Amino acid sequence: MRIGELAALIGVSTRTIRHYHQQGVMPEPERTSGGYREYQLRDAVLLARVRRLTELGLSLAEVRDVLADSSGTELREMLKELDHDLACQQEAIEVRRARLAVLISKETPHPDDAVSPELAELLGGVPLPDSAMFRADRKMLALMDTTADPALKRQTLKMMSPLREPEAMARGIDLYRRIDELADADVDDPRIEELAVELIGHIPQEMAESLRGNLSAPGTHPSVGDFVAEMGLSPAQSAVIRRAMHLLADGRGR
């Protein structure tokens, strides 16, 4: 058989067969006087075996090792490892499908709704107001959810859990509303100081202490300004956040 005939018989491409030769999975057959590879029945049997093993998910390096082990012991161990990997993948797929089901159930899902199950659970019981402040918060939570160290993320979400209490949610929504009312206000509006103090009081105690430690670190204040400037808030609304952060960093307002 020529390479094209062998490829058609086993259902692979001629390029695949050549690749198997290069990787040492299949030995090169003898060539005819014209320089063509001449394949025998044993080559077809071997190629079929390689195809079956790769379809199971074994790599070519693993297939090469399996074919060199006539006892079958190595194959069994590899198959057990592969089965374990597939079980883990299946579990991960089920988790992803559950998250997709939640997103699909929304009439108009937002890209930031595609957060981790932990953050989704935290936000699950929170009414989603049409608020510039809420949108800024959601952006930052989604960023933290994606970039933070898993242990830090779990700790942060745990510290935020008191905000799900009905009284805290009502207070938070009222704060969002009143900060939204500053959309067209001047940066010297007297409400800014009042709202900054209330905002600090709304933050759970453990979270406030953690933020205070981070904000009081040397060189933090300039970066805080840059952070607030990119939240998409008006100058007066941004002033509330800046003032709250400075009060918190200085140990005041709570």
UniProtKB/TrEMBL annotation:
HTH merR-type domain sequence ranges = 1-69
Extract the CDD domains matched here.
HTH_MerR-like (cd00592)
Asked if the Swiss-Prot or TrEMBL record annotates the protein with the keyword Transmembrane helix, the reply is: no
Q: Superkingdom, according to UniProt?
A: Bacteria
Q: Answer yes or no on keyword Oxidoreductase.
A: no
Upper classification of the source organism reads:
Bacteria, Bacillati, Actinomycetota, Actinomycetes, Streptosporangiales
User: Span of the secretion signal?
Assistant: none
Question: What organism is the protein native to?
Answer: Sinosporangium album
Instruction: Give a single Pfam family match.
Output: MerR_1
Q: Which InterPro entries match?
A: DNA-bd_dom_put_sf, MerR-type_HTH_dom, MerR_fam
- The entry's protein name is DNA-binding transcriptional regulator, MerR family
Any single GO molecular-function term of the entry would be:
DNA binding
What keywords were assigned to this record?
A: DNA-binding
